[in-house]
Amino acid sequence: MSLLGVLDRLSEVSKFDEQLEAARTAVSGLLRPQAFKDLLHGRWLGHPLHPVLAMVPVGTWASAGILDLLPPARPAATVLIGTGVAASLPAAMAGAADWSEQDKDVTRLGAVHAATNVAALGLYVGSMVARAKGRGGLGRALAYGGLGLVTGSAAIGGHMSYAQASGMNHAVPMARQMTTDWIDLGPLDDLPEGRPTLRTGEGQGTPIAVAAVRRGPRVDAFIGACSHVGGPLADGEVEDVRGRACLVCPWHGSAFDLENGQPRRGPAAVAQEKMEVRYEAGRAFARLPQRHEPK
Ligand code: FES
């Protein structure tokens, strides 16, 4: 087993699922209203916010670890540790918002990630208290302990993002598979008005789901897997969200603007892949813009 393979084993432990579900419900209830949750998801940024915010405590604490090696720079190390402690709160809130709307295996590992971070934070707070009391040696020992924990926790977070794909745009693998040929969505009259319909495009050996929505004479078509965690958008619905007609994912309620695929409501932070559409002899055809042309 690889070094981080043990994390995959951990993510299979279902013993605490009930407690995790209760925690997830509590987090969802606390992070209200939806606009606040969207702020934490990073919908306004077009990218998950948590990894951006997490850079601050990780960076300041790592820098403090270097400065603590140089006696004249130790007061600056204390300032950096305090900065990291203060910055850990918004980073944790953004992480909790993302965590509350993830798959079970990610949720399990996310709980380990969070617990490790809380332990690291405790050591850093202890380090600040020790330094304030003039016990610099203890303060530095606690800080190095915290740095070890936060490094491990960062590795867990990276594993969640890369190995468990928790932070990726789940529409992109499908878009990469798809050829740039036009896909026949069928006669306009066969597409129901105002609700998504599943159509299938040609992938490279794999059929690719497309979610098509007809509104009068026009059709909007998207890659069928939601950018958040791959929910089936063709099973969703069309809803007015903040004054715009949106395609709403059935899994966690992300709402994508039918005009441009931009998320109008999270948890999705990135836009949904939108396809070009043309019309010929009463039929609609869709294809991906050329940027995904296979090499
Ligand atoms: S999969 Fe989560 S909102 Fe679509």
Summarize the structure.
Helices cover 45% and strands 19% of the residues. It is of the alpha+beta class and 295 residues long.
Question: Can you describe this structure?
Answer:
The structure is a single chain. α4 runs antiparallel to α7, α5 packs antiparallel against α6 and α6 runs antiparallel to α7 (136-162). The chain has 8 helices and 10 strands. It is an alpha+beta fold. β5 and β6 (244-248) form a beta hairpin. It has helices spanning 5-10, 17-30, 34-41, 50-67, 74-99, 104-132, 136-162, 172-177; strands at 183-187, 196-202, 207-215, 218-223, 237-241, 244-248, 255-257, 263-265, 274-280, 283-287. Strands 1-10-9-4-3-2 form a 6-stranded antiparallel sheet. Strands 5-6-7-8 form a 4-stranded antiparallel sheet. It has 2 domains: 3-162; 171-292, 3-layer Sandwich (Rieske Iron-sulfur Protein). The model has no long low-confidence stretch (mean pLDDT 93). It is 45% helix and 19% strand. FE2/S2 (inorganic) cluster is lined by residues 226, 228-231, 249, 251-254, 267-268.
